[in-house]
């Protein structure tokens, strides 16, 4: 709740009307859930009375696109009520639920002086459920899932990929959300690869800077099938790292039934 207030103030100072609206709505949601319905409803009423035209997809503006190819750089999944359950082994399930619980109670953790990290790295073989897990976290937190599209981000033009990464992070900063970077190794590859040009270093440096400045009210999830290709500095950005294995016989049965 306190973080939402700070974001509203930031938006007001920078004259970012959409940011004020998005975080005011978020604050109203928290207040209503906390039993302070009168205050929450008053905030919603103020937004409505000012005839604020909401942008597409619940506070998210038009999707960013690569200016040369015109390809969208993100896809968006809006969570709805779902009975979808988490089917992983017990260790993974506990790790995921702990991460979700920490996010939902981040204000309490911050007030208690406990560090909260909203960066989650998933790695494992193809077909282990990394994308499904990102959607599950979206459903559990109520945050829209913004999936970065590599065909829109990665450019053959010098310097364009780093700029596109910045655009995606700027877009994700408009409101609380989950930014999902699938095939993460493409953007976060080891910088001492002799087969790569200097452009790779610019891309990884841009990625690291944006990760460091990522909105604390949002969640960053990265996923890769090739964790050994990741730059060493990238690993240090994640407090929560989860390895996903292919399901055993029991889990496969649970998935079917």
From TrEMBL:
Residues 116-248 form the AAA+ ATPase domain. Residues 190-217 form a coiled coil. GO terms for molecular function: ATP binding; ATP hydrolysis activity. Keywords: ATP-binding, Coiled coil, Nucleotide-binding. The keyword DNA repair does not apply. Belongs to the AAA ATPase family. This is AAA family ATPase. It comes from Listeria monocytogenes.
């Amino acid at each position: 709740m306190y973080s939402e207030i700070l974001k509203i103030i930031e938006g007001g100072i920078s004259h970012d009307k959409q940011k004020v609206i998005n975080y005011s709505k978020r604050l109203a949601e928290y207040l209503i859930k906390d039993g302070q319905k009168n205050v929450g409803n008053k905030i919603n009423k103020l937004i409505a009375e000012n005839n604020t035209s909401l942008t597409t997809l619940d506070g998210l503006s038009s999707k960013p696109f690569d200016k040369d190819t015109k390809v969208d750089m993100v896809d968006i999944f809006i969570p709805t009520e779902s009975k979808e359950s988490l089917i992983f082994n017990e260790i993974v399930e506990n790790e995921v639920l702990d991460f979700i619980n920490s996010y939902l109670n981040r204000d309490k953790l911050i007030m208690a002086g406990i560090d909260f990290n909203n960066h989650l790295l998933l790695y494992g073989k193809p077909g282990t459920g990394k994308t499904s897990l990102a959607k599950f976290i979206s459903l559990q937190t109520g945050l829209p899932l913004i999936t970065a599209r590599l065909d829109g981000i990665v450019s053959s033009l010098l310097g364009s990929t780093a700029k596109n990464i910045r655009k995606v992070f700027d877009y994700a900063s408009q409101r609380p959300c989950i930014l999902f970077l699938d095939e993460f190794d493409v953007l976060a590859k080891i910088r001492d690869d002799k087969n790569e040009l200097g452009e790779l270093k610019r891309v990884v440096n841009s990625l690291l800077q944006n990760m460091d400045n990522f909105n604390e009210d949002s969640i960053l999830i990265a996923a890769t099938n090739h964790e050994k290709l990741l730059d060493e500095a990238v690993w240090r950005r994640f407090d929560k790292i989860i390895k996903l294995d292919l399901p055993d016989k029991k889990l496969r049965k649970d998935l079917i039934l």
